[in-house]
Amino acid sequence: MRNTFINNYRKAQRAKTTHDDTKELYYLNVPDNHTFNSPDSSYEYKDIVNCMNGVKKDLLVPFKMHVDGYKYHEIAECLEIPIGTVKNRIFHARKEIQKKLVAYST
Predict the structure, then answer these.
(1) DSSP assigned state of 1
(2) Which residues are within 8 A (CB) of 49 and not within 5 positions of it... i.e. 6 or more apart?
C-alpha cells in the first residue's frame, strides 16, 4: 500500500507539470481567455458589483476582504471580531448577493 501511495503521488505530481514541445513555447505564452482576467469588460461582473453594493456594510467589509485574499484570522484581527463572526458574515453576504443576482437576472 505504501508503494502504491508513493507511485500515485508521483504520478499526480508529473500530471501537474506542463510540457510545451512547440517552437518558441507557443502554448505557455498563450493568454488565458477563459478565466476572469478582465472583469471590467464583463457585463456579469458589473451585475455582481451592483448587487454587492446593496449588501449591509457589516457584511460587506469582511466579504470584500475575503475576496481580496485575506484569511479568516487576518480579517478577524483587522476588524477585531471573533473568527466565527467573520465566517458567519461572509456566509450571509454570499447568500444575500446570490439572492440579489437571481432576482436581478429574472
Answers:
(1) -
(2) none
